[in-house]
């Protein structure tokens, strides 16, 4: 049984390599448009949570003032969340390759 698992893995790798070579022959590889689309995806993935954090922070600063700035705190939280979101998308697209 231990010999079967390495064979399955080798066959899976071989199939993936064959699919990749076939796609390259067909010309369906990732090109310039894919790269530009990925730039846009990463940009929006960071921008949206950042802007939402700012909007919520401004509202909280008006409604529930505190000894610190809600806007600044949620801006940083939005940027961090956006960076994690962008990393997730880039990692997902890299795995599909």
Question: What is the topological layout?
Answer:
Elements: H1 4-26, H2 32-63, H3 70-96
Helix pairs in contact: 2-3
Describe the fold and architecture.
This protein is mainly alpha-helical. The protein folds into two domains: 1-29; 31-96, no CATH class. It is built from three helices and no strands. It has helices at residues 4-26, 32-63, 70-96. Helix 2 packs antiparallel against helix 3. It is elongated, with a radius of gyration of 22 Å. It starts with a helix and ends with a helix. The relative contact order is 0.10. The model has no long low-confidence stretch (mean pLDDT 85).
Brief rundown of the structure:
With 97 residues, the protein is an all-alpha fold. The chain has two domains: 29 residues; 66 residues, no CATH class. Helices cover 85% and strands 0% of the residues.
Describe this protein with a few key phrases:
2 domains; 97 residues; 3 helices; mainly alpha; single chain; elongated
Biggest β-sheet, characterized?
none
Helicity range: over 70%
Residue stretches low in confidence (pLDDT < 50, at least 5 long) are none
Global Rg: 22 Å
- By secondary-structure content and strand pairing, the structural class works out as mainly alpha
Q: What is the beta-strand fraction?
A: under 5%
Overall average residue pLDDT? 85
The best one-word shape is: elongated
Tell me the span between the first and last alpha carbons.
Answer: 30 Å
Please, how many helices? 3
The total count of strands amounts to 0
């Amino acid at each position: 049984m231990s010999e079967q698992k390495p064979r399955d893995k080798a066959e899976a790798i071989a199939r993936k390599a064959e699919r990749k070579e076939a796609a390259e022959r067909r010309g369906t590889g990732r090109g310039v448009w894919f790269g530009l689309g990925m730039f846009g995806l990463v940009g929006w993935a960071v921008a949206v949570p950042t802007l939402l954090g700012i909007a919520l922070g401004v509202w909280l600063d008006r409604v529930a003032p505190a000894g610190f700035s809600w806007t600044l705190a949620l801006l940083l939280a939005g940027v961090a969340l956006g960076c994690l979101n962008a990393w997730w998308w880039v990692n997902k697209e890299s795995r599909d390759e």
